[in-house]
Design a protein that fits this description.
single chain
């Protein structure tokens, strides 16, 4: 798997602006402990009300991480 195409779990801003608020790499080569940590982090985001999607690492690197509402403040 090309490093740039490695999938990430992502969560977008709850305000609906589309900004990323969370990303965690999901590499199948990770240790079971790392995978468990990722699963726990994703579960915490779901509990906080975020929807989880997947996106390649190369897209995450260039994604918007600034909430539109926060940028106006």
């Amino acid at each position: 798997m090309n490093a740039d195409n490695t999938p990430c779990y992502i969560a977008r801003c709850l305000c609906g602006c589309g900004a990323l608020r969370f990303a965690a790499v999901d590499d199948p080569k990770f240790s079971p402990e790392h995978k468990a940590d990722t699963a726990e982090s994703v579960a915490e985001m779901i509990k906080a009300g975020y929807s989880i999607e997947r996106m390649p690492v190369d897209e995450v690197r260039f994604a918007n991480w600034t909430c539109a509402k926060e940028a106006k403040s």
